[in-house]
Amino acid sequence: MTLLKPKLITKLCGLVCSVSLFAANAQIIPSVPQINAKGYFLVDFTTGKVIASGDADTKLAPASLTKMMTSYVIGTEIVSGNIAPTDMVTISEKAWAKNFPESSKMFIEVGKKVSVDDLNRGIIIQSGNDACVALAEHIAGSEDAFADLMNAHSEKLGMTNTHFINSHGLDTDQHYTTPRDMATLGVALIRDVPEEYALYKEKSFTFNGIKQYNRNSLLWDASLNVDGIKTGHTSEAGYSLVTSATKDDMRLVSVVMGTTSERARMVESRKLLNYGFRFFETITPYKAGDSFAEQRIWMGNKETVSLGILEDTPITIPRGQRKNLQANFELDKTLEAPLAKGSKVGTLFLQLDGEEIAKYPLVTLEEIEEGSFFSKVYDYLRLQIMQ
């Protein structure tokens, strides 16, 4: 990522200072293309910026998108050490593949022992309903108890319009989600359980002599760098797809729910991703520890202190508009020593075309100790004169 090297504008207004990054004309962004789905959502993974949405909070049947939460729970259980990929799971009658004759399955057999790792791949790659029940029982004792875990994680993630009844997503009353909540879950999968998420890019999995291919056809799309996430389909839900793809420093998560066919969910998802990558970009103007400005400090053993931020500043902007950014900072008060390193002294604002798009705490990047007695008296007198 390219670090911006702005010049300090010497004009001060009270305790507000400006850093300018060249002026230019604003980029014209076209409207979001028409998305033929019951609901859709497009978000920048890194910044959380919502780029496009439609009926994003409409409650819809998730179908096999449900398995994203099943997978999330599995991933967190592995990370916490409660289960291991090498654990062997005895397949119960409830998890038997014969219980799911008209739906996707892994083809596991009752009484057989199957590893957590194989069952996990059976869920993610093969969308196996039987594998979902097997791991739900292994983790929580029953599918009902596992659904409680799913809902607890949903609440923790802020998925306020989601409720799960089962681990696989077959239609049932009070089993619903929204495009926005599915995007939240997609982001959480990538962020919280990266080893689990890495399985989503695998294109096929063979179990019990049966090779099945990942139903996410965008994994084969050479024009997009897609590495997940999940398809879903039932007669009630229609055809849905949550997708994540990367370009340069940008990762997008897209959701389309309730399209009319397998092809339609692929086409509509591609529309969203292409729109996001074509007209927007993720940049990081300043990184953690970068010095933003040297500011006068009084009563100290130095005359200036280096100010900056303690975190990266990723933002989503219209593509090509980096040069239009302006950074401003506002001090909370006149700076006086002593000041410890990392002390918050103000706020950094990032603006584009006069609109604030982000703000961060402005901190000292070094410790400033008190100066000598005489230098403090001198600074005190100067401050009195300036006031």
TrEMBL record:
Q: Name one GO cellular component term.
A: plasma membrane
Q: What is its EC number?
A: 3.4.16.4
Instruction: Give the subcellular location.
Output: Cell inner membrane
Q: Where does substrate bind?
A: 230
Signal peptide residues are 1-23
Q: In which pathway does it act?
A: Glycan biosynthesis; Cell wall biogenesis; peptidoglycan biosynthesis
Family assignment? Belongs to the peptidase S11 family.
Q: What does this protein do?
A: Removes C-terminal D-alanyl residues from sugar-peptide cell wall precursors.
> What is the protein name for this chain?
serine-type D-Ala-D-Ala carboxypeptidase
Q: Which organism is it from?
A: Pseudoalteromonas citrea
Q: Which gene encodes it?
A: dacC
